[in-house]
Specification:
This protein has a five-stranded mixed beta sheet, with no helix packed on it. Strands 3-5-8 form a three-stranded antiparallel beta sheet, with no helix packed on it. Strand 6 and strand 7 form a beta hairpin. It has no helices and ten strands. It has strands at 2-8, 15-21, 25-30, 33-34, 37-44, 48-56, 61-69, 72-79, 88-95, 101-109. It is mostly beta strands.
Amino acid sequence: ITRKVGVCVGTSETTAVRDVAETDYSIKIYPTVFENQLNVSTTNIDSKSIVINLENMLGQVVMQKRYDLQQGTNTLTLNYPASLPQQLYLVEIKDAMNGKKLAYKKVVKK
């Protein structure tokens, strides 16, 4: 969501207008160190579809899944196989409609 903000400068009638970007969501990815499970907590103004990628440090997507989120608070539990190698990964969350990156976090599989 983008809204216009007007700013009055001095005592004149001059008004500067600029764009202020507001996010319509908040996303938390936890824990940072995991065994077989990660959690994603979101709060959305509207319903939204997202894609969650788990990428290794070479940038290869090792797991990918799409989720349909409802308006309000959503908590997702992501289960990963025990056979997933122990290493550093990047969890990347994108808007499924336009591919825009919404969040990312480095996590460690122990």
